[in-house]
Amino acid sequence: MPGQNVELIHISHAFKEVTAVEDLTLTVDRKCFFSFLGPSGCGKTTLLRIIAGFIRPTRGKVLIGGKDMAGMPPNLRPTAMIFQNLALFPLMSVWENVAFAFEVRGMTKKNRRMRAEELLDRVALPDVADKSPQELSGGQRQRVAIARALAVEPEVLLLDEPLSALDLKLRQKMITELRDIQRQTEVTFIYITHDQGEALAMSDQIAVMTEGKVQQIGTPEEIYNKPRTAFVATFVGENNRIQGRITRIDHDRGEISTSLGNLTGKLGSTDINIGEDVLLFVRPERCTLNSQKEIDNSITGQIVQLDFAGPTRICNLNVKGELFKVVYPEGQHHFKTGDQADLSFHSRDALILPQGKAVHD
Amino acid sequence: MTQWQQLLFQNGKIMAVFMVALPAFWLVILIVAPQLMMIDFSLWYEDNVTLERLERDISQKDHHLFDLDDKIANLMDQGLSAADPQLVSLEQEYQLLDQEIKQLMLKTDDPPEVYSPKNYVYLAHNQLHRTIFLKTIWSSLMVTLIAMVICYPVAYYLAQVAPKRQATILFLGLIIPYWINEILRTFAWLMLLSYNGFINLFFTRAGLLEEPIEFLDGNTGVLIGMTYAYILFMVFPTYNLLQTLDRNQIDAASDLGAGWIRIHLRIAIPHAKPGLAVGAITTFMLAAGTYAVPAILGGPHSLWFTQIIYSWFFDGGNWNQGAAYAFVLLFLCIIFVMLMMKIFRVRFNDITRRV
To answer: Which residue of chain A has the CA closest to B269?
Structure first.
């Protein structure tokens, strides 16, 4: 049965003095599209290589389908990896690349060729079997790499930022295709990326990582709408950030005093007490300008920049020295740079989180 | 723009002329001319039969000259005056003969050159030389093979396994012995391998050998010395290529289930092939063309073909025969290069591009 779960139990790994992964425990459900999202150097590639068996972790255990993988080399694990640079074998033809796993198993040449062509059909690449990998386009090479990895009939497919070399259009196309292939094959996908767009679009579950630790695990919606730490709030999607001190707590709402006056928002953590320094986050698309309606948070600022982004317009507002970003549908307003505007947002759309390590831009 | 114009434009007149003239000089004076000269030398011989006949002729005439000289002296002793007609005619005869001998002597200085394939036919008919020739080729092949077997793991270790610092130290270890002259290095091996040498001493003392081994009697010493002498030429090109092998390729193969033997056979060795081919060609050429190693480490049973060529030139004084032998060796080496490239499926531009 394809698609086993992967359990990581207290995994730690250090390269000399640098800690890459720190005491990480989580479970990837079977047949799940699971992404590790984090900035480069956060330890996600190390983690992937630990699961694949290329790196033996300093501490901790990897279980795949409940079986301990300790001491098992990569060639015996029920995993297959797609490398960042794909690592196709340049001296073999496309079909030999795909059939490499069959060759290892001692299949006859005729069978190998047949099975390879089946797999190439599956990734929608007929008629390239005899070409060399160098003759293919970026997207085609991508698919050859996927076919080659599927040849071992893995329980778990590990993908190390395979889309990072593609241009935007192709990347978007491949995102849909990867998703489809995952649903079809029912293999557990573990996907590593620093691109939040890819992670949000493809995953069933996302783990946001930084400095070797998982910050939050959840569905894309949870990660985007209910970030639990300041890091997740700033790393995933755009967010306006205001520093302040909490002055009042009322159920799940809180009021903070900032340099821009008092603002209210939802409490993003139960761990917040009156008098603490906190951060208030609000998404640019949740802010409105010159609203007619009564909205609980409202501040006035000056428009310093207006960027056209096709269907939307991105407006940068200077409020008492703080820069705010607001996104609104193109044509809704007709501002000019230098205009005054009222910025308002509902307290239900603002999130109060403890000050932690945030992404500074 | 023609290539010449482009060269002129990019480098200026003086540099452009230099850049064309130097390769031309190299090509014509250092490569083509000596080879043509050697081929020419190998195709003719000095006609010794005519020469001997000439020399016999001269010595006969020399005797005659002495006789005449004696006769004249006798007649003078008998008191005959110098103006006597008999003496005058004898004197004339003597002068003529002397002239004739001088002219013949001139001819022997410049013996007749006869163009024929005789020098090559001689090699084909000389069983001993033929055997030595074939043995040289065979031994050179063995040296190449042994060097390849030893050098591939070393190159792989240096290129893919060793940490950077360790690789640097190992490289120094490989190169430093080559700072010493080849003949000195070979003499060092002589000391190690001789009957009472270090290796025999060590093993007999350790009780591992009852009798010392005669390394230097047969081919063993020559093979060891030569493999040692030329292994660097195999290591470097192989290392160069293995260094460009993407680590992910090895990981990917391993991830797809391949064990280490298959990884080497299917991924690493095919990648290193042009380097191995260059190494094999260089090692073979050097081994087949060496003189010092078999001369120092070899016994009477391990005569190398180059030693025979040497003796034709310097001991036998027959440059033509030597040239023919040398050309046969060169010809065979070219065939070997072609064959190697065919076997390894390497093209010339692979070699120039990747190494």
So the answer is: A91
